[in-house]
Amino acid sequence: MELEVFDIIVFVTGIIIGFAGALIFRSLSKKGSSDKHRSAGATIEALQQELERRQVLADDHFLQLHAHISAAEKKLADARKAVLEGASSLATVELEKPEETKETDSDSEFTTAPPRDYAAKESSDEGTLSESYGLHRNASEEPSRAI
Q1: How far is Cα 80 from Cα 100, in angstroms, rounded to an integer?
Q2: What CA–CA distance (Å, rounded) separates 84 from 102?
Q3: pLDDT (tens digit, 9 = 90+) per residue, 20-45?
Q4: How far apart are CA 137 and CA 132, in angstroms?
Q5: pTM over 0.70
Q6: Which CA distances in Å does 70 have to 58, 66, 99?
Q7: What are the start and end residues of every segment in region (Disordered) (predicted)?
Q8: How distant, in Å, are the alpha carbons of 28, 39, 100, 105, 112 from that of 108?
Q9: 76 Cβ partners below 8 Å, 6+ apart?
């Protein structure tokens, strides 16, 4: 009987030690996972800050580029004006001043025409852009479908 009691004591002790080990392992894994979550959060924040920094740099670059292009366009317009004035003072024929081109968003300036059919055809034939072109099939061309 002493051997059976000893086996029961060892069994109960093993269960207690296993339970304690599982609790310790679980607490350590939670701590590790929370550290991973914190580091992942820090990584996400660092990437977000890097993205914002790059967006600011891109915005600044394009604003500077716009300013340089505007200045170049003004200089080009001044140069054209100076050339036109110099040419008009030297020429015996009067030159017409070119109209200032201003950017407008109106669609009235742009007119569209329907597409033209340039395919060779007789005057009575339908063109390739006709809605009914190529849609006629003979009954002999139609395959027979049996169920």
Answers
A1: 11
A2: 19
A3: 999 998 888 877 666 666 777 788 88
A4: 11
A5: no
A6: 18, 6, 19
A7: 92-147
A8: 73, 58, 18, 9, 10
A9: none
CA–CA separation, 17 vs 10, rounded Å? 10
Rounded distance between C-alpha atoms, residue 22 and residue 16, angstroms: 10
Query: CA triplet 80, 82, 64: central angle to 5 degrees?
Result: 55
* Torsions phi, psi for 70 (to 5 deg): -60, -45
> Which residues contact residue 133 at a Cβ distance below 8 angstroms, ignoring those fewer than 6 apart?
126, 127
Residue 85 token pair: 């004035």
**Ramachandran assignment for 117, one of left (phi > 0), alpha (psi -120 to 50 degrees), beta (any other):** beta
> What's the number of CA atoms in the CB half-sphere (13 Å) around residue 134?
4
**DSSP per-residue string spanning 28-43:** HHHHHHHHHHHHHHHH
Amino acid at 111: T
